[in-house]
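Design a sequence for this backbone.
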């Protein structure tokens, strides 16, 4: 068929179809990362939902919570006369993470067939729609609507939005797999920075003597997120089958010896030991990091107490109300700084993995992490908040880097054909770590306090538990080898799958596609995602400044 005939058939395909978004001659591959960032900067707000908890605890009372003693969770779901408790609200985040893992695992195969545009559109309406449904829940004071909105619908949007660009970016940047996925997943780390600031500004605007302003804020955010994510979804383009950068050849040095030249089918990936070793690698790295992230602010306050505000002789329980508030402000700055390092670690480590190799990068995560976690009790004992903060900021770069590097690791091991779907299944490790890490650090802290250990030393043992997690991950990483050839698809199987997925789009050709270089459209796309990100960074640094006063 002629080029023009193929182009006409492509243009007549449904607007959300994968065939419709195969790149045409003249397309610049640097337009794809900002499209992915547009989606990840929105769904990253899942890490910032806690900004709503405090005002929602007084949604009815406004100035003070209306407390109902002995209220069960079932009663909290439907009450219109009692304010919600923190424990009731935190379940929203938990439900969202569970549905993130479930949707990524269940719909990963569909995403590979349907393409990133259709998945991105569904993600936009689920995530933004989750905010709108939750706004209705706040307005009517029905907690079950928040569970449905930001929990179930939002969680599905999270899962689809998170994995939607992975396969596409890896295929557009086979020469820079780590950097490409790192750019997108950096957006997830930075989304909470932007979203929490945006939410606070909206709540300040909409709050009145009779309202905390959460319902209106959630409704506005839902609409904004839908619009921004739709822009990202419609910016996606996929490569013609077999496309690769002009003049590029796959590396064959020792650092890249793990890269396969074949593809493992989705139905077989979980049957290989490599999948489960990488699952353990991700789970252990995330468990250690998320355990710290979930308790960062109280941990810093309880270990250093008055020292954070120039009162080194006072523990946290010896401070007055004003001093406690000042220490809490420093703790908030610590969390903001950790979020910043989490975001930048994603692009820095993932980009470094293109040169170090994915396996060597994870060796760095585990070996450096073991040293830093094991050193944390010593840094607390010598009373150096800055060294303590610096150690955990570096730890958070590796936490974020682990998320950003693992898609490229999967592509190296299993090939690029089903990497998005395989990544979706692997994210069940994240859901597991989201329970394991925080529970471990809280449980062992409580056990230490019950045994009479002073509060400032209660986290020492937990650090050694997190070291044990990293040792397990280190061993799993050591055991990863290239997949056996018996799992690789034959040329005939691969051709059949690609033909079924792309339809006639594989005839489009690749002349002039993916070429780099500056263009006004590329500049506008990067400004659209870069300006909000820079705004979030500047404001986050302002909050973190309290650590250095």
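Sequence:
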């Amino acid at each position: 068929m002629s080029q023009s005939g193929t182009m006409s058939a492509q243009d007549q395909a449904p607007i959300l179809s994968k065939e419709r978004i195969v790149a045409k001659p003249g397309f610049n591959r640097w337009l794809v990362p900002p499209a992915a960032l547009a989606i990840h900067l929105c769904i990253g707000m899942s890490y910032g939902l806690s900004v709503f908890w405090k005002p929602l605890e007084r949604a009815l009372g406004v100035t003070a919570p209306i407390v109902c003693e002995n209220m069960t969770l079932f009663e909290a779901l439907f009450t219109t006369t009692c304010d919600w408790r923190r424990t009731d609200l935190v379940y929203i985040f938990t439900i969202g993470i569970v549905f993130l893992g479930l949707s990524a695992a269940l719909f990963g195969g569909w995403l590979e067939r349907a393409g990133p545009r259709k998945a991105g559109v569904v993600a936009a309406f689920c995530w933004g729609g989750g905010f709108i449904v939750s706004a209705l829940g706040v307005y009517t004071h029905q907690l079950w609507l928040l569970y449905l909105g930001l929990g179930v619908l939002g969680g599905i949007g999270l899962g689809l939005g998170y994995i939607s660009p992975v396969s596409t970016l890896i295929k557009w940047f086979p020469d820079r797999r780590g950097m490409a996925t790192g750019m997108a997943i950096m957006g997830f780390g930075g989304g909470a920075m932007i979203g929490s600031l945006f939410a606070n500004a909206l709540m300040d605007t909409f709050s009145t003597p009779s309202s905390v302003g959460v319902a209106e804020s959630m409704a506005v955010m839902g609409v904004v997120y839908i619009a921004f994510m739709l822009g990202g979804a419609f910016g996606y383009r996929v490569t013609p089958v077999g496309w690769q950068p002009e003049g590029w050849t796959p590396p064959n040095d020792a650092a890249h010896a793990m890269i396969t030249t074949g593809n493992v089918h989705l139905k077989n990936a979980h049957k290989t030991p490599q999948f489960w070793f990488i699952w353990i690698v991700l789970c252990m790295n995330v468990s250690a990091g998320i355990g710290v992230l979930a308790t960062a602010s109280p941990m810093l306050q309880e270990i250093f107490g008055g020292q954070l505000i120039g009162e080194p002789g006072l523990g946290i329980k010896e401070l007055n109300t004003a001093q406690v508030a000042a220490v809490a402000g420093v703790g908030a700055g610590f969390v903001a700084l950790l979020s910043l390092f989490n975001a930048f670690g994603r692009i820095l480590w993932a980009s470094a993995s293109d040169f170090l190799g994915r396996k060597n990068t994870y060796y760095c995560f585990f070996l450096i992490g073991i040293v830093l976690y094991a050193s944390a009790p010593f840094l607390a004992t010598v009373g150096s908040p800055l060294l303590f903060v610096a150690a955990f900021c570096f730890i958070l770069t590796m936490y974020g880097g682990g998320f950003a590097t693992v898609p490229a690791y999967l592509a190296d091991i299993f090939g690029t054909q089903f990497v998005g779907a395989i990544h979706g299944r692997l994210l069940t490790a994240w859901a597991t770590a989201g329970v394991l890490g925080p529970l471990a650090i809280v449980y062992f802290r409580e056990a230490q306090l019950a045994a009479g250990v002073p509060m400032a030393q209660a986290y020492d043992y937990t650090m050694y538990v997190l070291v044990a997690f990293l040792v397990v991950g280190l061993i799993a990483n050591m055991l990863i080898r290239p997949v056996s050839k018996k799992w690789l698809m034959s040329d005939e199987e691969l051709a059949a799958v690609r033909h079924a997925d792309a339809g006639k789009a594989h005839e489009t050709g690749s002349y002039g596609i993916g070429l780099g270089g500056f263009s006004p459209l590329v500049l506008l796309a990067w400004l659209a995602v870069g300006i909000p990100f820079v705004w979030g960074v500047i404001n986050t640094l302002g909050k973190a400044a309290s650590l250095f006063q």
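The mean pLDDT is 86.
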